[in-house]
Amino acid sequence: MSTAFVRLDARCQHARGLACLPGRAVERSGFMFRQGSLRDLQHIQSCLLREKMNPVGIHPSRFILAEDFESQHPIGFGQMELKSDDGVQKVYELRSLVVDPERRGNGVGKMLVEQLLFSKSPYKEVWLTTTRSKITFYEQLGFSEEAIDLHVPKWLWIEMTLGSLVAPLAVGEPLVVMKLEGQDRFCG
């Protein structure tokens, strides 16, 4: 299966300048986006383990990967998992965001999140768990830190309970919960 490479379409961009081209690769700043596939599973799992992240629930088709345009080597990835859908409003969890350490600080992670959000828009909410040191990154993308109380979805309580035990040991910092309110921020 070959990947179609396309340039940015200036007629269809959201405020951050990402192309709105679901299902096709998008070239951007020396890298491109593509949908994950079964061939990516081993790479995704090894990166998650290296980053001390939860490898459970990995389905490559939920992932978007950023690849170096010349080498076609993955330089980052992330996934959005559908958690509830009442037929009208969808709730997702943003999970497994990883960028190659050598490519961090160049906007790859930010554009991956934006591409993931676009690919699932419109949605009611997007939730995530992250470490305290990553709060600013996600706040710049519109997420806000949430108190762990009764409005946090039950499925996230389980993850937070387990993660709050493991994260301080594995990465030396506590987990936080963040949420992005649904909005039609993207063209379509």
UniProtKB/TrEMBL annotation:
Domain N-acetyltransferase: start-end pairs: 21-163
SUPFAM superfamilies, alphabetized: Acyl-CoA N-acyltransferases (Nat) (SSF55729)
InterPro entries: Acyl_CoA_acyltransferase, GNAT_dom
MF (Gene Ontology): acyltransferase activity, transferring groups other than amino-acyl groups
Name of the protein this chain belongs to: N-acetyltransferase domain-containing protein
Organism name: Chlamydomonas eustigma
